[in-house]
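Hi R.,

Here's the chain you asked about this morning:
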Amino acid sequence: MSSQFNPLGPEEPDGTDALEHVLGGDPAGAYLEMDETTREQYRQACRELAAHSGHTPVAVAREAIRLCEEHAPDEPRGRHVGVVLIAEGRPRLQARLGCRTSWRQSLLRGLRRHAPTAYVGGLLTLTVVALLGIERWLAFWGLGVGHRVVLVAAFFIPVLDFIQGQVDAV
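And the predicted structure, written out as tokens:
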């Protein structure tokens, strides 16, 4: 397949050539300069959004280009079709297309978008739950508040290290 933009139009109405033709009109001019793997990611994003919206992949690509064209010429990132298809502009495109995404897909996309925060937050949450369990266990055995606070503080790093090892092993 050629990476050259065909000014005469697509060869197939909803095939790869049609997507190449539409996406080749990327206002930032970056699409045709990309390697084949990246262009395939963009085409796959069009197919995925089409499956969740009832539109064709070509119609999705056209709407993505329209969204990019709404950005001023001095906003090169906003004019890049990839921002709309696979990055921070995607929710806006999904809303325009009327996409129906499952709660699972939304959750996974949010976790990927905020992966470092989710990782650290998960580790800290599990650590606090474990330390509260230790504190309750110490209270059950009759240790005073002062002793429990000291012991829980002493356990903080080892418990965090253990939990991090368990999470990272998954």
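The radius of gyration is 25 Å.

Let me know if you need anything else.
M.
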